[in-house]
Every structure is written in structure tokens, then in C-alpha cells.
Design a protein that fits this description.
mainly beta, globular, single chain, three-stranded antiparallel β-sheet, two-stranded antiparallel sheet
Length: 73
Amino acid sequence: MILGTDLPGEGLRRGDIVKLVDHHVAPDGADAYSVEFFNALGETAGVACVPVCALRKLDSHSVLTARELTVAA
């Protein structure tokens, strides 16, 4: 899956690739997922909770890129 929005607190940006881990229903009733994100070596860099509306599927028009992961202090 691809993030459709920035998550500055996690250091994630729109377009970053994540793996779905678990489905949640948030207290406000909205659907969400725990997602795992990785560094360029495939090592887990963290886990975040993301609303379903902030995710989209990878497709043949997606291009992989690399950037420095920085988390806001």
C-alpha cells in the first residue's frame, strides 16, 4: 500500500510504501490500519496507525524511490 498523506510525526510522506498489519475501528467509528514501514534494507523502521482513506494500492504506474527517514522531534 502507498500513503496518500504525510504523517510528519512518524517521518512518513505521501507516496511512501507501507505494509498493512492489522485492521482497527477508531473510537470515532472510522476504519483504520496499523501499518509497518521499512528502511531501504527491508528492516522495520516503525509502525503507525493510518485511516483507510489515507491509503491506496500500488499499481503499474507506481515508481519506487529512496529518501532519508527523519522523524520530527
